[in-house]
Design goal:
The strands form two sheets. A four-stranded antiparallel sheet has the order 1-2-3-4, with no helix packed on it. Strands 5-6-7 form a three-stranded antiparallel sheet. Helix 2 crosses helix 4. Helix content is about 30%, strand content about 30%.
């Protein structure tokens, strides 16, 4: 989204662990018959005074394996409509989110939600959620400590 182009912008802060602040920005643009909306996420480690990135939460050399795992989970048990919505999302698309669009990942102490950027008709499938127990093999030790 373009900063300053939104009609509505909401920001919220929450704690993630003892020293991490999660910042969520929800935005909406009223584009006539086709409004757009979305969310963006950032994470600040207050003890270190730095913004956190994907490698602070997930082991970098396991990102390709994590991307394949996410795609497999997305399609396991999904009905045909949901599979159709996810059809344009493959492991390379997930890997790209991990590498360059970390603001599309909402991290909580329960797990993660990934904003997938599915087609407009699939808005009920915008996010895909994974619980922390399924993510443990991919998590850094510091992320594991946050979610305990």
């Amino acid at each position: 989204y373009e900063p300053g182009k939104e009609d509505n912008l909401e920001m919220s802060l929450s704690n993630l662990g003892q020293s991490i602040i999660a910042i969520q920005a929800n935005f909406e643009t009223n584009g006539g018959a086709h409004p757009d909306f979305g969310a963006s996420y950032s994470y600040i480690d207050m003890s270190k005074g730095k913004e956190l990135k994907t490698e602070d939460f997930f082991i970098k050399n396991k990102w390709p394996e994590l991307a394949k795992f996410i795609v497999k989970k997305m399609n396991t048990g999904a009905d045909q409509e949901t599979k159709d919505c996810y059809s344009s999302i493959d492991d390379q698309a997930i890997l790209e989110i991990l590498k360059t669009n970390f603001s599309a990942i909402q991290i909580t102490n329960k797990g993660i939600s990934i904003l997938l950027g599915v087609p407009r008709y699939c808005r009920n499938n915008d996010f895909f959620d994974l619980d922390k127990s399924s993510l443990k093999p991919f998590m850094t030790d510091s992320f594991k400590a946050i979610t305990q």
